[in-house]
């Protein structure tokens, strides 16, 4: 070191002493400039920078110094001080640990202890638990600094702070305290670590069960755990107390056990398992009261019998842990089995304890407290087997096997002997629990046991019992003989030949002898069996074993059965049965046998005593099926159905059909019954209660026992039918009919099912055949009448009103027979009769009026003498008979009135029957409501409405739970009382919220009162419940119309009519009216299709309600649109007749105007039908009904008068009265104001046509001038322009034609479309260009029209036709493509002609036909294309069009 360096270092040291930190820094810096790796200069620089606040530079200086001399503590101390000054606690802790190691290496115990103490204090104040453990571990023997710290002097008690490291000195003096603290902290750290990791992993997908996660975490934590080493150190520490040592051993045992259970593979567990066992063994030998150790030592033993567990060990366990669960189990088991609880010298104390409580009860109670103990489960299982608690034994054995499996999984130790023992117990329980229900499972277990031990007595006995149940008596006897041999050999080897064989014979051997003898008896070896049973009786009676009363009673009973069946020695058998009951008064089979004796053998028979015996037997044991069946039959004969059900259910429970917690549904899939009669009885009861699903399953179970039982198939079919499963019902009933063809009830039920699925013809045929065979059976007649009535209603719904009339008359005839028969069915007969009359009201006239008259007179005679016709109904039936007063002109109105009188009579008949009374009031209300729609308009209907409202309220009072009554109340109060209507509808919905009709009606109520949102919600709910409910669609249509959405409204009205098939009359009315109003906005084909739909629907309306003049008139106009002018004429005449009656009564001006309009329409129809004189009269009547002075603002009257004038003029013209025609039209032309140009234009056009028809030049010039004036007044009158152009074309007047066409061309295309939706102008233009030979111009006009109306089928046809005429069939096919070709006649005809032209020219597009499904190559496809097919379809679509026939002929000849 140079002098410069020394001087500067001295200067730096002096500056530091003077706290001249800047000078010290400068001096150290000068040294480092000269000598970069000077250790002292770096240390001085670090200290100076630290004091100057230049922490980073100071830290770098210290670290560089440490690198130069890592073993020199000076820089380490400076760096530690820096970290402390800057509160960098992690770095400070690391520096303290490094200092401790440096001082330990240098042997400086004092300074090493100081670093350790400061580190511990830091970790206690600011560190985590793991960091504190690491710090404290420096003072343990395993620490690298422990040897140095041991050199510290002993602590000075009088001056604890003198050394500065008193805490470390104390730890070195007695390290147990530190070790205990480290152990405690480590335990808490690992426990918290496991808990946090388990919680974190539980949220992961596929993490496994909670136990699997815990084991995995414990396994990972255990791999790095220091607790085993710490526990070992604690146990080896010389200062450890006995108490601490025991506690540590307990913890170590649990730690190793936890690690053992967490290991994944059994192969890796053996060594650790032996360590655990050794630890447990040591604690047991020393008598240490650690229950886990004792349980491990006892539970982990693999022994076959309980005696293998060492009773001495069990006594010690119970003495050490008297209040533990297993200790109490041991106590209960010992007391139950009679094993001394204590050693012999303490017998007196044992006797005192034995009197405390019953051993079996204590065992049951204590076993629940230790569900994880294999020993407890085995002890309880043995006790339950001896007590014959088979359900409990099954649960216990299954629980024990689950524990064994869990033990093997956790410890890797197999317990084959324990498993075998528990399997034997489980198999024994399954053999005796509701045999033979569980025998398949029992046999599998028995086979496993016998495979391990062929001489296992319990397994042999169990297999013998199973063979007994299967009826294999010989095989069973062989097994029992083997058991006898095994037990006898065991007994002889144990006792010797001189022992008393009877006294020492075990229970199992006597039982095997008895069972073998019983097998001989059942196998037909009577004498040998009787001898064996007598021997068994003697052995049982002489046996000293306690608790064998049941076995003694069973042996005597079997002996009695043997005497009864072999030789009919009834009296000896009777004595044996009595002896059986003397042995055990609660032995149920003996009571059953005594009951049979009293009922069948005793002279005289004693049925009362027999019944008591059967009841006693059934009370004692529900498995006594013989007694149960006799009891059930007796109760059924006495009509005690509730008792019958009780007996049936208890019998099923007794045979295991309905165990605790099970239902018929859960049992139905896996159960073969032993007492099918009980299931049949249960099914009948459930069927009566309308619980169809349980009834079905009960009958299914019964049929498993006997699939040829026709009665069960019959009731099963009935249950299926009532539950709505008609297909299954038909199959079941067909099976019943195959088994019993003569059973009329089966045919009856089959017919009822046929009715439900709509096959009324077949059902009626069956009912009629049954009625012929059983003419007095009111039930058959009622079903036949109901079938006819349902058939008629179905026919009405499908529109076959004529057929329905015949069905209703048949129902009426059968109902009359029913009324005259059994009084019990008379009310049903009246109900059917009234319903049939109500349905007949749909007929305006009857097909056979004479027969109808007689039938109605017969109904009247039935009503005569009854107290009907009071109040409002008094106006319907006077003193003279109704039908007689009206003559033979009977109609539906008469039938409805008779229905009302019949309903009133039903009210009197059902005064004391709320169900029938409510139905009668409801029918009366509905009938009165319908009457108001059939009465003439002149009649006052208000009394009928009030009476109908009163009647429906009476119906609700009688039965407030019927939603249809509330719904009817809502409908009846719809307009006058909206609050009541809303309450009624909501009440109906509350009762049945699945009925779409209720929701639809409440929707109409909201719509009527302008609540659009609620109405929409109600209609949507109805559509959700039933998408085919037409009323809901009608409501949506009205809602769309209310919102102004005419397009949707039109589509919705049409859909409502379609899905209702015309049965919803209101929808038909609205649809027809709207269709007539929209006649100018629809394409021709679409309009025609809808007209046909409206025609069909309104025709049905007219037949069902022939008194509606509005609908008759509307139907006439629809018929006119379809060209059915004759039918239209009749409909309008019928409407006129009704309007005339209405006007005569009310003299209403509105009816007068409707009357005039009807006459105007009638005149037009008469004119179309060639009835010109009658047409003149009709027009005259229409005009006369109008006032002479018509206000110009009355458009309807003006139009009507103009129409009458036009019709009158045309009629005169057609009658060749030209002058009258001209004068009429001229007067009409003058009368029409200029404010009605459209009306005036029609008159002008007709006048011009008439003038042109006169033929004179003057008249024709006048016609031209009239047309020109009309066009000048109304430039958009296309009809006049077209007529003028036609005149120019006919006369060759080119100027006139050019002027007319100029007017047409001047109109924009869109305007032409608005005033000429039919395309007549475009057709005229194209025709004109064709006449002039300009085909391309004609095509251009047609294409322009198609461009303006791309959806117009007429415009498309015109373009395709012109292209075809021009020789461009390919282009025509593009305009009218085959894909999506409409089905109308013109489209098909044009398509056929196009294909014909393409085929002749060889220009067919083969790919298009292949895409349509025509297979083959090009040539084959061309050959197979038949244009005549489209031509044939055109003819079928419109056979009245001659052009279609011509095209068909042309295509066929091609």
UniProtKB/TrEMBL annotation:
GO cellular component: Ski complex
Pfam families per record: TPR_16 (PF13432), TPR_22 (PF18833)
Alphabetically ordered keywords of this record: Coiled coil, Repeat, TPR repeat
UniProt organism field: Calocera viscosa (strain TUFC12733)
Ranges: TPR repeats: 39-72, 676-709, 710-743, 996-1029, 1156-1189
One of the protein's GO biological processes: RNA catabolic process
Name the UniProt record assigns to this protein: TPR-like protein
Chain segments annotated as coiled-coil in the UniProt record: 1183-1235
